[in-house]
Amino acid sequence: LLWNDQRTAAECEQIRQAAGGVAALVRTAGNAPLTGFTLPKLLWLRTHEPEIEARLAGFCMPKDFVRLCLTGRLGTDVGDAAGTLLFDVEQRAWSAELCARMDLSPSILPQAVESGVLVGHVTPWAGAQTGLRPGTPCVAGSGDNQCGGVGAGVVEPGAVLLTLGTSGVVYAHSERCLKDDAEPQPGRVHTMCSATGTSERRGAWTITGCMLSAAGSLEWARSVLAPGASFDALMAEASSVPPGSDGLLFMPYLTGERCPYADPCARGGWIGLNRRHTRGHLIRAVVEGVCLGMAQVFDLVTSLGIDAAELRIGGGAARSPLWRQTLADAIGREVVTLEHDEGPAFGAALIGAVG
Question: Catalytic annotation on 144?
């Protein structure tokens, strides 16, 4: 079940009630009951595929399955554990209370360790399958956003990373476990454990806000408006249109939304179309709509007290001058472009080196 799968809305409501409300859940798990997290998917299996749920001995994230295949050991890191809704993010440990409230056995929970901890070695079988040398050490690693933060150097307060990939993420580092638990709309911003911990040192926390369809909105628009056209060609068309797209607006909620509006039923579209609008207008409106949404997410993240002295931009869409300038204009700040756009892979390599 993918991170952007929206079929678990009913299970999210079930979690909200069992936890005693969204704010109560955020105070422990750091996050609201949103469709992308693990717990709603486990409960969906219980309701819709009980024969699978009855056989469940444990679960893990995709990168942890790779680790299982390489080392023969099941486990995860505290960063991905924080995305399950079963983890006490401040204590960096599984929550027995949340498991009890959700009627889940703690026995299915993988061991969760800091990202830089050595968790095993490549087995002879895995070596024969992959070409890796048997005995090669493996560390826990982390999720894409945490690794991306490390790769972008966002490992201490002061810098904020803006990522324009399929989704759009505003990512910040915090030495305090800040939580978005204020009413009336708690949980729009996520509190996770960072990937900066090792066996000798506990890590910090990350504060993130995630739009589900950022550059993914442009990918969709290309598929329906200009299949076969290059992104560079579309950016050239959009750049010929004045800022504001002559009054055309785009709502980038193609797969529901998580932040700035937590609504799996939100839907997108263009507003204000007239006969003067061209394909270039449609494309530029997509870019502007996404960037305005990212600005809203940035405001929510920084409202928790995040130091945002420098804004760094990464992700595939950050290669485009139009995307970079539009995002800078939407936020009203200068942005620094990273020299590389493979931040998560680079960050994972750094974590491995430290481990």
Answer: yes
